[in-house]
Amino acid sequence: MSNVRIPPVLRETTGGSRTVTAHGATVDEVLGDLFVRYPALRERVTTDGELSPFVNLYVNDRDVRYREGLATAVGPDDTVILLPAMAGGAR
Amino acid sequence: MAIHARLGARPGAPAPPWANVVESIGNTPMVELRRLSPSPRVHLFAKLEGANPTGSVKDRVARAMLADAVRSGALKPGQTILEPSSGNTGISLAMIGARMGHPVRIVMPENTTPERTQLLQLFGAEIVYSPGAEGSNGAIRMALELAAADPTLYMPYQYGNEANPRAHEETTGPEILEQVPDVDVFVAGLGTGGTLTGVGRYLKRVRPDVRIVAAEPLPGELVQGLRSLDEGFVPPVLDRAILDDKYLVSNRDAVIGLRRLTREEGIFAGLSCGAAVAVAVKVARDMDRGSVVVLLADAGWKYLSTDLWTRDLDELEDELEGSVLW
Q1: How far is B121 from chain A (nearest CA, A)?
Q2: Do B229 and A84 touch (CB under 8 A)?
Q3: Which of A43, A64, B44, B145 is 20 to 30 Å from the Cα of B177, by its Cα?
Q4: Cα separation, B22 vs B26, whole angstroms
Q5: Nearest to residue B139, comparing CAs of B148, B125, B129, B149?
Q6: Does 3.40.50.150 match the CATH number of domain A2-84?
Q7: Set B85, B272, B291, B323: catalytic member
């Protein structure tokens, strides 16, 4: 079971939880498990079955867009991090 | 002994004088980070952009955007320049804009370091503060509103201005290839995406197998003040297709990287440089051999008041949760 970190902007969909746990061996399966329990999360995070352009999803510290996308493997000790796309910082 | 011998050496001839400080932008040093490289077969190099006149890579971008605007007629003599920036770009625009005779107004999050305010003011810029809780996104939103309400302002808008990546495609990229012809991986902080996109375009044209890797800040809870995901932001100049990998770096790991740079290599750099180095070392660890170039976007001067180098890490981590530093 992996840990999933929920950003402040999405916490209303998880009843305020910062971190939730989810089953699944891929990002797709982890999200599927979350969407069953937190249905409002689905439309916020995905568009037409793909990650929404304004959402970044990381397995540990790597952005899955540059790996295998929703098919990226998730291990039981991995942390999945959801974040809104933000402008860069001190630039 | 060898080091002492080299300290006295002066390789190459000194460059002739530039006509003015703006012309001296770029041509920054490249140094090998032998102490940080995890393997003697992987060469790790740092491009020191802090050597630019106002201490950051943004001098290249500001110069290019203003030159482009003058050429196209978008920037008229004496017109006020407005720009959202959490520091470096604003300071570069303030210096170059003042030299060109333009008033400069910078929209900056209120929770950056005091050095940024000092530098902007000493170059004569006016500062408009945006809500700290909204981070850089808030500064962008406010600047766009100000520009829409007052057509007399000229906004270069680094996040959407093609002159930003083009400056890197035309200067930073060629310099890197000249300094490290066998570069295999290029690492830089994400920011506007201009550096990664521009350098990536150039390097991939010449060396198609080169990998372009981004270091992205893990935003603190307190600067994620978005009301909805629709307020999220992907900079228009960022070409996501150029990137091969993107790593999230916590403030804690960025500070650790920064301290290693200072203590092991003697390089005084800004916080995003610590993050970029953390990623570069991670990438180098997975390589059998090759060359990694990491771009260090700024020098450490603008961060001195935060005591990034000396304070207790846990204490610092709590404070950085609520600031916009990189």
Answers
A1: 17
A2: yes
A3: A64
A4: 9
A5: B129
A6: no
A7: B272
Contacts of A16 (CB under 8 A, 6+ apart): none
pLDDT at B9: 57
Q: Is B18 helix (H, G, I), strand (E, B) or coil?
A: coil
The torsion defined by the Cα of B68, B70, B75 and B79, in degrees rounded to 10, comes to 130
Distance from the B309 Cα atom to the nearest Cα atom in chain A, whole angstroms: 18
Check B192 against A8: CB less than 8 A apart: no
Q: Which residue of A has its CA nearest to B249?
A: A61
Give pTM, 2 decimals: 0.92
> What are the 10-residue block averages of pLDDT along chain B, 326 residues in total?
54 84 97 97 98 98 98 97 93 98 96 92 96 86 95 95 98 98 97 95 98 89 57 84 95 94 97 96 98 97 91 85 66
The letter for the amino acid at B295 is L
Q: Sketch out chain B's domains with CATH numbers.
A: 2-51+168-320 (3.40.50.1100), 58-149 (3.40.50.1100)
List, in sequence order, every residue forming a beta bridge with B47; answer none if it has no partner.
Answer: B30, B295
Residue B39 appears among annotated catalytic residues: no
Pick the residue of B192, B229, B237, B324 with the most A CBs within 10 A to test the interface with A by mutation. B229
DSSP at B188: E
**Is the CB of B226 less than 8 angstroms away from the CB of A58?**
no
